[in-house]
């Protein structure tokens, strides 16, 4: 599973062009941005009208955008208190969450969420002052049955060092800043990993 995550900024047509270009190589796009709800709804509609399928869009956290854009998937932070109730009351919506420890992976598994993002695995510019997960932490995390997606510092070089057991990768800059050929190569390298 390849999951792109938008940069945490105001999104425009430049990002739409990039995500349209790489759409065939990713399974999902998590839209996480500080944009106001009305602007975000307009951007999601424009993304979809430009040819990006709704089935690949996961909205981060915003229930209004989920409903108004008729999306089928939402992603939450690990400490969001709405997750259990939302999952129970919306069995038709795909729910996933970010995790940083086994306690929250266990919670996600118990709630039967679709997958978790787990990280960060390698040093990353988005978390410059935080240490990556240790080998011991990663090994414990990978013992769960829920699909665990590696997040943080993943690229064509670090992919070779990724411990076995992850069901996919997620990232921000790798999908926002790389060209199509580089992402295509990453996808080929991933086939070797699995």
From TrEMBL:
The keyword Magnesium does not apply. The keyword ATP-binding does not apply. InterPro entries: Aldolase_TIM (IPR013785), ThiamineP_synth_sf (IPR036206), ThiamineP_synth_TenI (IPR022998). Transmembrane segments: none annotated. GO terms for molecular function: thiamine-phosphate diphosphorylase activity. Pathway: Cofactor biosynthesis; thiamine diphosphate biosynthesis. GO terms for cellular component: cytoplasm. Signal peptide: none annotated. GO terms for biological process: thiamine biosynthetic process. Keywords: Thiamine biosynthesis. Residues 36-173 form the Thiamine phosphate synthase/TenI domain. This is Thiamine phosphate synthase. It comes from Staphylococcus equorum.
